[in-house]
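Quality-control log, excerpt.
Job 1 of 2 completed; input and output follow.
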Amino acid sequence: MAKKQGTAGQESEAAEGAKKGPTLADVRAWIQSKAGRAKLLPRNDPYWGAAADRDLFVGYRSMANGGNWIARWRDVDGLHGTVGKQHYHPLGRVDEADKDAYTDAQKAARQWLKKMRAGIKSSEVVTVADACREYVSRIRKEKGDATATDAEQRFNRTVYAHELGKVALDKLTTLRIADWRDWLGEPNERGKVLGRASINRTLTALKAALNLAVDHKHAPEVLRTELRNSKPLEKADNRRTLFLDLGQRRALLAAAEGDIRALIEAAMLTGARPGELANAQCKQFDARTGTMQFIGKTGERKVFLTPVAIALFKSAKKNKLPGAWLFDNAGAQWQKHVWNEHVQKAAERAASPPGTCMYVLRHSFITEAVMGGLSTAEVAKITGTSLAMIDAHYAHLVQASAERLARITLI
């Protein structure tokens, strides 16, 4: 009789244990295999395995359809804030076709832990494309829409759809960046080739985005070394060697269609930076005095306009409020990627030299002004640049003017 009572007691204990669920030892064993994981009931809280490293654990979140891996690490050294704080990191869905799924999850967790211990705390900014998007978001807040849109368009064309964009930040090397830089110089689907200067500017934007990722602890510090070793192309300052003569400038202007024509003409007549013209409001132009208050990267400057330029600016300002854009694109502000596209189309129709862009018009203005006899100091003031820059790139033209003057009988 006692024996029967004992048997009944054991059965009762077993039933009670079944209600409580598997033991910790059971869970740690079961999550290692597909058959074992199938025994675990779906729930929000993960089932945790044995320690995969110091204070590191891999968990399995069972769901109605499959499951997910998750890593947990307790920061006992205070590397990421309060000592003893728990950090979690999703490792992705369980691949039940992989017999080593649990081992692979442990490896992924250790890789995450390695980043955490190195001070890398991001689980959202993982790839090069992620870093570029965060950079665009940051400079939009700090420098405005125009600068952010310029970077965003560069990344749209060169990073997001390229294999480089998928590379994890901790896997990026100088060689990968160099391969991408060289790819930028290949003809696109339209047969157009990006100029060496444009390639270097795009590389500079990428490096700025990646350095920001390191600053924000999304990428290891060693990435800075890879970036320092990523060199720009040499002999890339071709914008100051391309000059459009009077006939070429007139042909380009004649080929311009729509609102871009006024922007091109303004650049030809003033030598202003295209951004200064695109950002200009009507109130900056004073028709009474024939002056324009340009606002650019070197600050503000007041410039006296020629009669032709005054007429153009008056026409552009007509029937507009003081705060309206002086040169607009159907009422909207011009953006760099938009005016570049319009200028490129006009250049194709006008058969302009390869590389023709808005900056070339600025260079052509400065060249004509210096060749026409204006002093380098005057040209520097008009165009809002330094005298040192004018002397460095245009001083040879002053000499040419002196030589022509020497051939003229003055007395």
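Job 2 of 2 completed; input and output follow.
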Amino acid sequence: MASDKNDKTYTLLRAFINDQLERSQLEELFALIEEADEEQLHIAIRSILDEEQTPENLDFIHERVELLQEDILAKINPPQSSPSKRKLSSLQIAIGIAAMLTIVFTITYLWQFGNEHSGTDQSIASTIMPGGNRATITVNGQDFELDTDQGELVLGADSLFYGDGQLLTTTGVQQSVQVKTPLGGQYQLMLADGSQVWLNAGSELTYNTGFGTDNRALRLEGEAYFDVVKNPDLPFTVEINGQQVEVLGTAFNINAYAEEPMVKTTLQRGSLAVANNDQKLILKPNQQAILDKDAKKIATRDVNAASIVAWKDGIFDFHGMDVEESMRVIARWYQLDIVYKEKIPSVLLGGKMSRGVRLSTFLEFLEANFDIHGEVTADRKLIITRKSK
């Protein structure tokens, strides 16, 4: 396959990247991809991206990756189609989807690691991979390293097992259970009552066996997103830094890292009570309770909860974050020490990015959009400087 601009595959690829492909063209592209030479396909994609290298396109590509499967299925087999038009077999659809997924991830890869126009030194940054599914669980002093290929652990009433049913260990009565993610780690948990927890990097969740039967009490350090099953007879409570969150059934996020000056509790759905000493506030959806650790006071503000909890879906959302807060997020995910060479840049960041990218991609984003330069040393220090105008 040639990469000439008149080439049919090139034209269809370019239309796909810009979300301008009709159903009939998508099927044609499937057929051409199956016959294409892989190296020439990569060349064609690189050529297209060289023409259209903008941060907006990068955001668009990441969103396309997330929505790709349902989008393709809808185009191949739209609800309004008559049975006579549904000619593709299940096997053909599967092949087509797999082929297109390969294209999009190839596009993302070439964008992230093949950009020759960036001013960022990527020699070290390009080797630093993002975090992943990593955690340990401690049951009465015995440590278990969780399977990185699993990603979900079910914390049953008397046993711990992975989402696919594989048993990890059994638990006894009145035992303490602690789940801990390292820097650069994350893990999803299913609690004994059916509630779900997404544990972010550098976090720790502790509970006692009996959870879901005679209590629903947890302790948290770090950050977690909770989707709680409703049970009016057994309130769900989370203790963090002397503050207590109590819910019946709701979805919310708690950010309580030791290095953060505030404890932030964000409600996405339902309602919950946040209490500290003699203060007690009731949150509504898209509200956030902010506990000032020094003043020991709680205040509330309106927020976009979807933006704050985007991390659990694999997205960095920097809207409203200043440089310091953003760098702390990055440091936890890529296991870095942040060093400011000069005065900390006084700027609010914005934009979204996949948490699945190498560090070099984030540094390109930072430099291209905010004139902030990041350089990584061999001992994983990220040195931040403001580019001169």
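Post-run check on job 2. The radius of gyration is 24 Å.
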